[in-house]
User: Which sequence fits this backbone?
């Protein structure tokens, strides 16, 4: 069957791709758009390294035909990385040595982003429950949980600082 | 990738029409968490696939004394409802956040063991399934819908469109044993529900997962409980019957021997939770 044109929102920018039937979002991101932060681990939905956010919810891009997300909002690691420096979650992963080989890190960061968006101060249990689908074979997970806690604090402090400076401007 | 045609119907009538038109060769996919791995790996080589994500079958609502679950309602939707606590518990113990955002309640009924944990809870809750085709609709008890390993009562031109669950007033118990705490295939899953009158059990439902070709009822164990006060002897007898009556298998998760042992143990534990006076449950 003929290829189709699919458009979707990728990190605030509309992208248009031509795909064969049932091409996965993972393949489109990596092979057509060059967005290689989304990793290609197991293609079985088992490792979590290809996790992206669709309308803010974590999903596995290896199991998702790109036609299913036509017109929807896709967020990858590239979307949240600032032009200079790092996102607070990325910085927290760096500071806590939560990344060794790094292959799982983009998926871990995306799930952590979704978690902190839902729950700004998650407990240890909530972090572990959120990350159960993301496998890391290096760290033993403890530094990752630590990183998510410190990212939560950093995001909280940044929000406080924003409120503080807004208050000063108001004065 | 061999798929030549990927159909994405935008409504139930459109989906039923496409199913009728394309016949049994059409692979129907909902969340993709079971079908996509097989397609990615080249184990399944369908030429035509129909995806249901946009077909408008994802509602979930309480209607009177039942919960009506659209076939493509996600496991996350099941986790977010509070009408049937056992279904929350089943969803919470199934897979991971991302998979729950994709996997559907209807799809779970077609997931081969040791998957299909939500179906175990639905079986204990006396869920009914609605099957639709261009010819019309029929409603079946879930217990009659599941017929064998990866086989169901579904006809080639039929689509599972809804699952309805009576909202139970009586206490329920749901236990899953895996090799990890979360995101794990089941060694055994037990869902139990009892009805009582005058301190005696009048009706019992015990459903088991991962110890048969599909989620099964432990009917002999259920019968042994009726008329008892759910004392230690009754629980022990039911646990033995459930272990003897199941058909466990060996895979990378557990041996058949271990699954049978754990089936008995976990049926016992589930029933203990339902004992009158047990913390938070019973009467």
Assistant:
């Amino acid at each position: 069957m003929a290829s189709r044109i699919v458009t979707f929102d990728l990190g605030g920018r509309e992208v248009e791709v031509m795909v064969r039937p049932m091409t996965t979002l993972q393949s489109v991101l990596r092979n057509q758009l060059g967005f290689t932060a989304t990793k290609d681990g197991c293609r079985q939905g088992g490792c979590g390294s290809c996790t992206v956010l669709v309308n803010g919810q974590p999903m596995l891009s290896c199991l998702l035909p790109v036609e299913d997300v036509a017109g929807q909002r896709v967020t990858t690691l590239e979307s949240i990385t600032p032009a200079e420096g790092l996102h607070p979650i990325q910085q927290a992963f760096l500071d806590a040595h939560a990344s060794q080989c790094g292959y799982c890190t983009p998926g871990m960061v995306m799930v952590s982003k979704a978690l902190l968006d839902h729950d700004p101060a998650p407990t240890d249990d909530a972090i572990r429950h959120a990350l159960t689908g993301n496998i890391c074979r290096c760290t033993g997970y403890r530094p990752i949980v630590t990183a998510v806690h410190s990212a939560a604090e950093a995001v909280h402090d940044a929000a406080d600082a924003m409120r503080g400076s807004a208050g000063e401007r108001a004065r | 990738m061999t798929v030549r045609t990927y159909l994405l119907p935008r409504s139930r009538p459109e989906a039923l029409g496409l199913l009728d038109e394309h016949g049994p060769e059409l692979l129907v996919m909902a969340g993709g968490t079971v079908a996509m791995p097989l397609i990615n790996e080249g184990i399944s080589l369908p030429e035509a696939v129909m995806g249901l994500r946009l077909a408008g079958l994802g509602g979930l609502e309480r209607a009177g004394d039942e919960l009506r679950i659209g076939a493509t309602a996600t496991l996350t939707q099941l986790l977010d409802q509070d009408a049937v606590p056992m279904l929350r518990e089943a969803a919470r113990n199934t897979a991971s956040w991302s998979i729950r955002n994709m996997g559907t309640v209807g799809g779970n009924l077609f997931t081969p063991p040791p998957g299909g944990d939500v179906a175990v809870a639905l079986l204990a809750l006396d869920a009914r399934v609605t099957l639709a085709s261009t010819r019309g609709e029929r409603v079946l008890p879930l217990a009659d819908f599941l017929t064998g390993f990866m086989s169901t009562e579904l006809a080639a031109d039929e689509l599972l469109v809804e699952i309805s669950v009576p909202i139970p007033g009586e206490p329920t118990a749901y236990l899953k044993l895996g090799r990890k705490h979360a995101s794990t295939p089941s060694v055994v899953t037990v869902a139990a529900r009892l009805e009582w009158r005058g301190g005696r059990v009048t009706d019992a439902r015990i459903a088991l997962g991962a110890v048969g070709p599909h989620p099964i009822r432990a009917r002999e164990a259920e019968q042994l409980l009726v008329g008892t006060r759910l004392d230690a002897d009754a629980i022990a007898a039911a646990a033995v019957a459930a272990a003897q009556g199941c058909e466990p298998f060996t895979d990378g998760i557990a041996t058949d021997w271990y699954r049978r042992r754990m089936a008995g143990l976990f049926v016992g534990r589930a029933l203990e939770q339902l004992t009158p006076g047990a913390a938070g449950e019973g009467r």
In short: Chain B touches chain A at residues 1, 3-6, 8, 31-33, 36-37, 39-41, 49, 51, 53-54, 76, 95-99, 101-102, 181-183 (CB under 8 Å). DSSP finds eleven helices and 14 strands in chain B. The domain at 60-166 of chain B is CATH 3.30.465.10 (Uridine Diphospho-n-acetylenolpyruvylglucosamine Reductase; domain 3). The CA atoms of residues 45 and 182 of chain B lie 31 Å apart.
